[in-house]
Amino acid sequence: MTTKRNIYLQMKSLEAARRILFETFRERLTLPVKTVSVYDAVGRVLATPVSAKLSSPAFHVAAMDGIAVSAAVTFGAAETAPKQLTIGVEAMYVNTGHAMPRGTDAVIMIEHVNELEEGQVEIQAPAYPWQYVRRVGEDIVAGEQLFPRHHRITPYCIGALLAAGVGRVPVKRRPHVILIPTGSELIDWETAADGKMQPGQVIEANTHVLGNLVAANGGTYKRHPNVDDTVAGIRQAVEASVAADCDMILLTGGSSAGSEDYTRSVIEALGRVLVHGVTMMPGKPLLIGEIAGKPVFGMPGYPVSAILAFEQFVGPLLLKVQGLPEQTREQVTVMPARKIASRLGVEEFLRVKLGTVGERIIATPLGRGAGAITTLTEADGIIRIPSQVEGIDAFAPVQAELLRSPEAISQTVVAVGSHDNTLDVLADLVRGAHPVIRFSSSHVGSMGGLMAIRKDACHVAGSHLLDETDGTYNRSYIHKYLPGIPVRQVLSLIHI
Amino acid sequence: MTTKRNIYLQMKSLEAARRILFETFRERLTLPVKTVSVYDAVGRVLATPVSAKLSSPAFHVAAMDGIAVSAAVTFGAAETAPKQLTIGVEAMYVNTGHAMPRGTDAVIMIEHVNELEEGQVEIQAPAYPWQYVRRVGEDIVAGEQLFPRHHRITPYCIGALLAAGVGRVPVKRRPHVILIPTGSELIDWETAADGKMQPGQVIEANTHVLGNLVAANGGTYKRHPNVDDTVAGIRQAVEASVAADCDMILLTGGSSAGSEDYTRSVIEALGRVLVHGVTMMPGKPLLIGEIAGKPVFGMPGYPVSAILAFEQFVGPLLLKVQGLPEQTREQVTVMPARKIASRLGVEEFLRVKLGTVGERIIATPLGRGAGAITTLTEADGIIRIPSQVEGIDAFAPVQAELLRSPEAISQTVVAVGSHDNTLDVLADLVRGAHPVIRFSSSHVGSMGGLMAIRKDACHVAGSHLLDETDGTYNRSYIHKYLPGIPVRQVLSLIHI
Asked: What is the CA radius of gyration of chain B?
């Protein structure tokens, strides 16, 4: 058993580590240009500006159903002095969208045309030139720039591109990431499902989560098969991946210091380590290296650490190499339901549940363990506690980054108290009956529920509290927030 | 030439039309359940609640590298009274993530362990029970509900599902939409690219735009080949589509009243018309019908009308049948750069450019024609002018729905003045050098630029104005907003 341990001699702040990463790779990572059909272009990023090949409309076209005329012919027409026009000579029937016949420059609405005998119509008012005509290039002029480089194509853009006769566009090839899961303890879920899971084994999930995050940041990904926790095994996988056609490599490591050692020594042997250890929590054990010009990340082993490190480093780098701005989350002011201590020198990413109670958005902290993925799946927001701050006070306003829309949070019923599985059943029933209403329960024990009631920080208290308070307080809230579900049914569910 | 015209005898308000649509179909459209691999599940919607098959951790596991012990054995250890433990008997080496050996319930960090001769270690402090141990089910308990029905799966969720041993999930089949492009004037872009476009022909784009919007709302789509503008042709296409395995049918019609007639008469012949005409602009000529229980939409022909009608009706219905809440856009308070008149009785969707100038977000209206797709691709937001309002005043605060993030809008350089193609070149250069900075130019003529300067509603005035004002006013703004690009270069570009 080795006792040689990695020591984070030069841990970097989040800001410093990000600067090192982006300065090292932003210019060096360039993505080749690819031409794709407009039909498949949504979400792609333009490599060069795109200009219109055709004008839109491509011809003068009628903007109303009626008759096309030369405006000059109609001058002088009035109720008292109607003009007669001959169809096929001075007036041509047109429908909206029809090309204007040669020699015409105005449309008179069919409602204002009196049809006389065969081939003759009468008008009682003049038309002005270009009346009800969409002129060539009114929307798009051939040759003009439609979108600049680095523009990300939306469904709307497809309309403009096709209207301008552009059927193929030059886009950046998506950045390609290889994910290498390392750890002798890793198994696939199928193995676990067969009841063959051995003590100490873990279902490999991180590469699937991070791969999906790569895709959400515009990249493509491939998983390398699970690699045993040996220097030789990791080295072989990394060498093969660096040689492959990819832009970035992510090792999702075991969470032990030993496994970090292996990853670090492989990166040192094949390239160089840029950052080892970031003063963020979760996410601290992140390794950033460079091999043959490609960024190689040793991701932390705990799922929450891996995700938060990804979101601070890998995701933004993926966007930067595509020429896209970093994604920022909407922020709102929230009030923590209780005091939270935090370690000095570390920037903490505290996962919280949010709910609007009265005028305030109340933040209930979730567990802080980096191993608990549910602290992210349950979270509505993240409060970042800066490294020079020792904690945040109960009900003191702080900023939270939102993981769900403000709309969703305003329609969340907040339940605080001891954990009761029937609350999960209730959450499901509510979701079935009212897709817009979310039921969010924080499990902080009965005392936490009592405190929440006292501070007016919840809609529904835990089951024990309902017994003690006769449910009167909560019943009114339930009624307000769960319209359509009989109050009796809600209460009986909570009481089970 | 027929003169029989559709008359919108019973135009519905946006609200009334939406109510009719949702009440008719929300309950009737049900999507079958499909089981998919967790690996492909991101973005899918759970059809039923999902519960954990395994606990996570599945066993007690070490949370630190060190030795696993029974806490009871360590009681009494102190600096003055160290305890010796025999490896393999009272103490077992473990790494983070290892299963706790049988009989142990605490981990002592390796840093606090003195290694003596072979097989012996010494500790100088006791361990408390469960110290540095992640206990079974700390994150997830087997059997507990992970997510309620109608939950949309995120990348984070994949981590929780796999950790809980869930490899396959029951999701709703995506709603499938068939899009039928109608109109004898339609051609594909390839035909236009060959220079074979005839006067009056139009490149078919609406089904591609709307199909991508279907996908953005969680659906799948298939395009029917272009259909000529005849009752027989449309009828045949609709009958075939209704018989096919789809949930919804969209006809993207010609924009003429004649083509609406055909669509309407086909829907009436095969089913019933629910709504014809909505008092919204653009979007008015929308047709909503029902054939064999399926919603059939006759979408307006103009691209902006088709998109806005989609976003008010088709998109929300797609979300509702999946059990998802309607998407709402973030709203901000903006100040229109000029007075805008609007028709009474019609809810107008005014496309605007937005930019932060000083403390204010200035909204510059784009063109109002429904045929101009660039009024949507260029737009940063939409101001909805209610039907009972005749217009909005210059610089009077109004709400705008955002089409881009507030971050993007705060980093937009606003240029107002006459159209100058070199501004497009500048926009591209800026985007190349600074992915986060957008350059947005509104083409309102030199007088509009002058007004914008007077009202402090722009950063950069049009090229003509620069000559007149010597560029002094604008130079400071350019300098502030385009760091890194030499001012001289920017000005010379604008001056070209």
From this structure: 32
